[in-house]
Design a protein that fits this description.
Strand order of the largest sheet: 1-2-3-4-5-6
Oligomer: single chain
Order of helices and strands: EHEHEHEHEHE
Structural class: alpha/beta
Shape: globular
Distance between the termini: 27 Å
Largest sheet: 6 strands, parallel
Strand content: 5-15%
Length: 191
């Protein structure tokens, strides 16, 4: 899976996207155009590669440090522009959409705009309860689209097991980030 962690201009505006400390990609046509062109070029390059599962357009867009009610409505329109450019050259690979605000909010999404979308959320430091994933399940059921928990971890083995079982009980795929904090007991291997 190709996952854009560092969009031109920054999709998050925080340390994880190597940006200038602000999510310029949403306001700057220069950075928006560059991002759309980048994804089109990547899709052109990988369109026939069966080893590629899909394209995750942004990692954890829009940090909570910013006015999320201002930036979040800009996310889906930008996703649509990127997807249109990808579909010009690649009609096969799935498109993975992170929710707004650290990949945690789906309420900014409307009706799915492509027939091969997957919606992903990230969850850290929450109780492993149905209540903490129900909004995502409801979204998936409402639109009949796949939901994926694309990133989690940094917790105890017991919590990870409990959360994994909860996700699987609800038909949600998952990926834990086992090497996120290397000098921690929550890492798969402490260094």
């Amino acid at each position: 899976m190709l996952d854009l962690h560092a969009a031109p201009g920054g999709q998050t505006g925080a340390n994880i996207d190597d940006s200038y400390g602000y999510p310029f990609v949403y306001e700057s046509t220069y950075y928006t155009d560059m991002t759309v062109q980048l994804w089109r070029a990547l899709a052109q390059r990988y369109k026939d590669e069966t080893i590629i599962l899909g394209y995750e357009l942004f990692n954890e867009p829009i940090a909570s440090d910013f006015n999320t009610s201002y930036f979040s409505p800009m996310l889906e329109p930008l996703y649509k522009k990127i997807t249109t450019a990808i579909r010009e050259v690649d009609k096969n690979h799935m498109i993975i959409l992170d929710g707004a605000v650290w990949a945690s909010q789906f309420q900014w999404f409307g009706t799915p705009f492509d027939s091969n979308l997957v919606y992903t959320f990230h969850k850290y430091w929450v109780d492993a309860t149905q209540n903490n994933i129900q909004d995502y399940i409801d979204f998936g059921n409402k639109y009949n689209v796949p939901i994926w928990m694309g990133e989690s971890g940094e917790n105890s083995d017991t919590w990870i097991e409990t959360f994994r079982v909860l996700l699987e009980k609800n038909g949600v795929g998952w990926a834990f980030w086992p090497y996120k904090k290397l000098n921690s007991d929550s890492c798969i291997r402490k260094f």
